[in-house]
Design goal:
about 350 residues; Peroxisomal Thiolase, Chain A, domain 1; four-stranded mixed sheet; binds coenzyme A
């Protein structure tokens, strides 16, 4: 493979803007409704809707993995961008649920889609992963090191949810979204500003304790379901609002735009109340916010690319629109971007 890799030019060209030139998404068929969850744990449809805004979520089949969903979304993004898989220089897969800890699920996807020239790696920034990936891709493109980067967010969160824990099992779902990034075409400005950050002092408020070297899987660990998502909901909520707001403000300021210049905000789809607090602080009405959490719940790194794909396909987002993307996740991590579509 290495021999086929294109040598990285290191020209003294000025930096160039990167843009998304094609998107794709994949959602598994199986719908899990709040009514079904009422039969699994002590919860109600009313509680879930009023506290989170989620009505249903998708669940991947037993033999359907993060790489399968990511590859399906990627194939669609490749077709929309009108490129060939062999044009891709780099595959970045943002996920917290890789098929295996190693090798990366990104390598599986690279093979599945025939991106034979590409380097590939998994990126772990939890729910902020897609935006982290987009920002990394931007650096390769802006510096002329790469022409075409595929960024994917794909998650099989159902595989790490404790289906007996009502605090978490109502929140998450499975799915994938993907974007092809290249230099901004003539007349398009693409990415205008980005921001990313993390706070490792907060690792324990949203995490999966077991499955890594810190707590290898043993029968005791399995019995205690430590290989599943553990979360202090209230603390995560509080941090999410503050961090998303601060990051969004930073990206906006760097872009030279104000909230009034934004046609759309695409936030991470964790909780409708988090989203409305953030957008209210920014001064953006909910009529300018793209939402899909009612149908898909929190698909972590896949939320934003799925929302981007669906809203551009439906014609909601139009060429020339100014978008703010903003996310928050375990780590803790956060990221945002302002771009012209
Ligand atoms: N159904 C019914 N009751 C539930 C429930 C459920 N699914 N989940 C929790 N409860 C209960 C709690 O046990 C608690 O009961 P108690 O008062 O007897 O202890 C009560 O509801 C209220 O819990 P509270 O934590 O105050 O609710 P909340 O308003 O904070 O909402 C979350 C809970 C999880 C929805 C909210 O905190 C949240 O969204 N946090 C952020 C989570 C997140 O986004 N994570 C991913 C980030 S990327």
């Amino acid at each position: 493979m290495t021999m086929k890799n294109r040598p990285h030019p290191r020209p003294s060209h000025p930096r160039r803007n990167a843009a998304i030139v094609g998107t794709g998404a994949y959602l598994p068929e199986r719908v899990l409704t709040n009514a079904e969850l009422e039969k699994m744990v002590d919860t109600t449809n009313d509680w879930i809707i009023t506290r989170t805004g989620i009505s249903e979520r998708r669940i991947a089949a037993a033999d359907e993995f993060t790489s399968d969903m990511g590859a399906a979304a990627a194939r669609m993004a490749i077709a929309k961008a009108g490129i060939s898989p062999t044009d891709i220089d780099l595959v970045i897969l943002a996920t917290s649920t890789p098929d295996t800890i190693f090798p990366s699920a990104a390598c599986r996807i690279q093979h599945m889609i025939g991106a034979t020239r590409a380097a590939a790696f998994d990126l772990q920034a939890a729910c902020s992963g897609f935006l982290y990936g987009m920002i990394i891709a931007e650096q390769f493109i802006a510096s002329h090191a790469h022409e075409t980067v595929l960024v994917i967010g794909s998650e099989k969160l159902s595989s790490i949810v404790n289906w007996e824990d009502r605090n978490t099992c109502v929140l998450f779902g499975d799915g994938a979204g993907a974007a092809i990034m290249q230099a901004a075409p003539e007349g398009k400005r693409g990415l205008l500003a980005t921001d990313m950050g993390s706070d490792g002092a907060q690792t324990d408020i949203l995490h999966m304790p077991a499955g890594g070297c810190r707590m290898p899987i043993t029968p005791e660990v399995l019995a205690q379901k430590k290989n599943s998502i553990h979360m202090s909901g209230k603390e995560v909520y509080r941090y999410a609002v503050g961090a998303m707001n601060a990051s969004a403000e930073r990206s906006l300021q760097l872009s030279g735009l104000s909230a009034a210049d934004l046609q759309w905000v695409i936030p991470h789809q964790a909780n409708l109340r988090i989203i409305s607090s953030v957008t209210e602080r920014l001064g953006v009405g909910m009529d300018r916010v793209i939402l899909n959490l009612e149908r898909y719940g929190n698909t972590s790194a896949a939320c934003i690319p799925i929302a981007l794909h669906e809203s551009s396909e439906s014609g909601k987002i139009k060429a020339g629109d100014n978008l703010l993307l903003v996310a928050f996740g375990g780590g803790l991590t956060w990221a945002s971007a302002v771009l012209e579509w």
